[in-house]
Write a structure and sequence with these properties.
Blueprint lengths: L5 E4 L8 E2 L2 E2 L7 H13 L4 E3 L8 H9 L7 E6 L1 E4 L2 E4 L3 H15 L4 E7 L8 H12 L3 E7 L15 E5 L18 E5 L28 H13 L5 H9 L5 E4 L11
Parallel strand pairs: 1-4, 1-12, 4-5, 5-8, 8-9, 9-10, 10-11, 11-12
Antiparallel strand pairs: 2-3, 6-7
Helix pairs in contact: 1-2, 2-3, 3-4
């Protein structure tokens, strides 16, 4: 498989994050194992990594910093908007916090600048003129090469199509809503995430119910599990390779995949 359009997402490498005694992150993973996954991905030719300050309160960024650092042959995309302090998760998209958050991310990543810096699911009310102006100022300073937005769906953000350089959105075989906007954004970089629907499209029908999970997926709407169940029942030869190839058939700049074991990088 050609890896020049495949990126590795690192949320799953951050492990658990608890809110009100519920895990809104992923399951625990040993640091050595997480680092080996990153190294293996690079060895296979993957040269784009997606992370965020919210992933394990900076843990994913720190892991990438240990492996990649100032190797600018490898591109790094991080995101702004959520952070943890004293066990509480805060949502803050203010322009005032942006520069501090960016420098903290750069310090954890051991980099002088970010290739991509995205607003992490900001609502329309949170995307203020002041916030955009600050993003552009930091870009002009060379601390960010490209600014963007990470969201589930593009539809609410059409007025910002000309503002941002790139967009990270959900695409998989049961969530195809964003495809209709790709022609309008042919001059932008578009990253597709959740290609495996957070791993649900790689499960058996029997595994597709919220009570089977102890991570954030336990809180997903039952409709998601029903759609995934219908898909896997109708596609008995489904595999990670099949799902990636279907995503690559669309004009996405990058396909972001997440794995929690080196063996999953075979994409069989």
């Amino acid at each position: 498989m050609n890896f020049n359009r495949i990126a590795l997402g690192t949320w799953q490498l951050a492990g658990p994050v608890y809110k009100d005694a519920s895990n809104i992150g992923w399951n625990f993973i040993e640091e050595d194992k997480a680092i080996n996954i990153i190294k293996s991905a690079i060895d296979m030719g993957i040269d784009f990594f997606d992370t965020a300050e919210a992933y394990g309160n900076g843990k994913s960024e720190a892991l990438l910093g240990k492996v990649i650092g100032n190797n600018y042959n490898v591109k790094v995309c991080s995101k702004y908007g959520f952070y943890e302090k004293d066990g509480t998760i805060y949502r803050d998209f203010t322009a005032e916090r942006l520069e501090t958050a960016l420098h903290q991310s750069l310090q954890r990543l051991n980099r002088d600048y970010l290739d991509y810096y995205l607003l992490h699911g900001a609502t329309l009310n949170e995307i203020t003129e002041e916030l955009i102006a600050e993003l552009l100022r930091l870009k002009k300073l060379g601390l960010i090469k490209k600014i963007g937005l990470s969201a589930t769906f593009l539809e609410p953000y059409q007025n910002y199509f000309d503002v941002f350089d790139c967009f990270e959105v959900v695409y998989n075989e049961i969530t195809t809503n964003n495809l209709q906007y790709l022609p309008q954004l042919s001059h932008k970089e578009i990253f597709a995430r959740s290609v495996f629907a957070s791993g649900l499209l790689l499960k058996t029908a029997e595994e597709l119910s919220p009570d089977k999970y102890t991570d954030w997926r336990s809180q997903l709407h039952p409709d998601i599990f029903e759609k995934a169940r219908n898909y896997v029942l109708q596609n008995i030869n489904n595999s990670s390779k099949t799902l990636i190839e279907k995503a690559l058939s669309h004009p996405f700049s990058r396909i972001i995949i997440g794995v929690n074991d080196i063996s999953q990088l075979s994409f069989g």
